[in-house]
Design a protein that fits this description.
The chain is α+β, with helices and mostly antiparallel strands. The chain is about 25% helix and about 30% strand. The strands form two sheets. The chain has a five-stranded mixed beta sheet with strand order 3-2-4-5-9, covered by helices on one side. Strands 1-6-7-8 form a four-stranded antiparallel beta sheet, with no helix packed on it. Strand 2 and strand 3 form a beta hairpin. The radius of gyration is 15 Å and the shape is globular.
Length: about 150
């Protein structure tokens, strides 16, 4: 999370994990969450590391950027990840469960997704440039590319 427009937030190796990036174009406040599982098993595990889980991490990120001056109605939300890189047989469907959990949370908070790229079977690295709100994705062996408005699922 940062309010410094010179910062670029990056998270690496999104497999079944989900990255949620939020950015306010007026204040240029933004943040990024990289969560591993859709929900915490109990309050103790949630308290130990709330950003590990979608059900505790996403509300925390939304709250934190608002405390730094971002307005919920102006937020641009980007979502990436949710691939099936370890669970090719679809036994656990962690990527899909992560994505579903996040969409439910965003719906509950009334925050639409600006752009997303989820699913598939490759890991991704993503970044958010706070000066411009540019959200980029890089897959192994490929150059970074900007994710633009709309939904794209692999």
């Amino acid at each position: 999370m940062s309010g410094n427009p010179d910062h670029v937030l990056v998270t690496y190796a999104l497999g079944s994990c989900i990255a949620m990036a939020v950015w306010d174009p007026r204040t240029r406040v933004g943040g990024m969450l990289h969560f591993l599982l859709p929900e915490a098993l109990n309050e103790e595990t949630a308290a130990q590391n709330p950003c590990r889980y979608g059900d505790t991490g996403a509300p925390w990120l939304l709250r934190t950027v608002q405390e730094q001056g971002a307005a919920r109605q102006r937020l641009m939300v980007y979502v990436a990840g949710g691939a099936s890189v370890v669970d090719d047989g679809g036994v656990f469907n962690i990527g899909k469960r992560n994505y579903t959990a996040l969409r439910k949370i965003l719906w509950k908070y009334g925050v639409p997704v600006h752009a997303e790229e989820v699913g598939g079977s490759v890991s991704r690295t993503v970044g958010l440039e706070l000066s411009t709100g540019r959200f980029w994705i890089r897959e192994p062996g490929a150059p970074p590319r900007q994710l633009t408005r709309g939904a794209l699922r692999c």
